[in-house]
Amino acid sequence: MPEYKNIVILTGAGISAESGLATFRSSNGLWNNHPVEDVATVEAFQRNPAYVHDFYNELKKELVKAQPNPAHLAITKLQKEYPAKISVVTQNVDTLHEKAQNSNIYHIHGQINQAVCQNCGHIIETFGDVDTQTVCPNCQVMGMMKPNIVFFGENLLYMDKVDSLLRTCDLFLSIGTSGVVFPAAAFVQIAKINGAHTIEFNLEPTSNNYYFDQHIFGKAGTTLPAFIDELIKNNK
Questions:
Q1: Pairing state of beta strands 123-125 and 110-117?
Q2: Angle CA 82–87–89, to nearest 5
Q3: What pLDDT score does 152 carry?
Q4: Higher pLDDT residue, 105 or 13?
Q5: May I ask the CATH class of domain 1-20+68-109+156-236?
Q6: What is the largest CA-CA distance in the chain?
Q7: Cross-strand partners of 150
């Protein structure tokens, strides 16, 4: 097994599912049992901000209880014990990577524990409620805080940085992501074209699996720790 210098780990809903968090967007198009167009679009927030705030405040309570599983903890071990630059790009809005003490985390879909001021761009972090009465601590304007969640139709976060990471990595790991939501579904292609070894960790093959050099099927909480232990052992 070669020695890697730059590792990018992409995580999706599958890694959080093993911590008891359901996949938010189900096959029937619901977003945590709510129609997507009611809670996860710019138009929905403009139409009824109080309703959208209530939804995310309740979701926040659910996510705060969740604890990292062995897959999250394996990433921490890798970052501590393997001599490479290791970045985590996640599609998940939960904070399980943070709870596991992962570092270099890029939440491309936003974070449940953040709100962004639409007036001045200031971001606050809180696990408490945010609503239409919340005052921005930076500009002092009330009612302009929006959940720092990327709604459908909005641009993903950190994309310039992520693109740079993908073009310079030599190992790309995809964990628990369906491979159907773009642009994240194209990340493996970018990494592979630029010379990275690409590995998929999933319960079953994904639609873009031909871009992966290796497939490891099974629960990430079992397969990822075993893979990472082997990676660390071979480096010593």
A1: antiparallel
A2: 140
A3: 86
A4: 105
A5: alpha beta
A6: 57
A7: none
Weakest-pLDDT range from 52-56, 176-180, 196-200 = 176-180
Specify the fold of 22-65+111-149. SIR2/SIRT2 'Small Domain' (3.30.1600)
Task: Provide, rounded to the nearest whole percent, the portion of the chain with pLDDT above 70.
Answer: 94
Nearest to 105 by CA among 127, 90, 83, 85: 90
Q: Provide the annotated active-site residues.
A: 109
Element (H, E) at 166: helix 159-168
pLDDT digits (tens, 9 = 90+) for 16-70: 999 988 655 555 444 556 677 888 899 999 999 999 999 999 999 988 899 999 9
Strand-pairing partners, residue 152, are 41
Quick one: tokens of 150? 């990327």
Tell me which residue of 115, 28, 16, 13 sits closest to 71, measured CA to CA.
Answer: 16
What is d(CA 225, CA 221) in angstroms, rounded to the nearest whole number?
7
Please answer whether residues 82 and 235 qualify as being in contact, where contact means their C-beta atoms are separated by less than 8 angstroms. yes
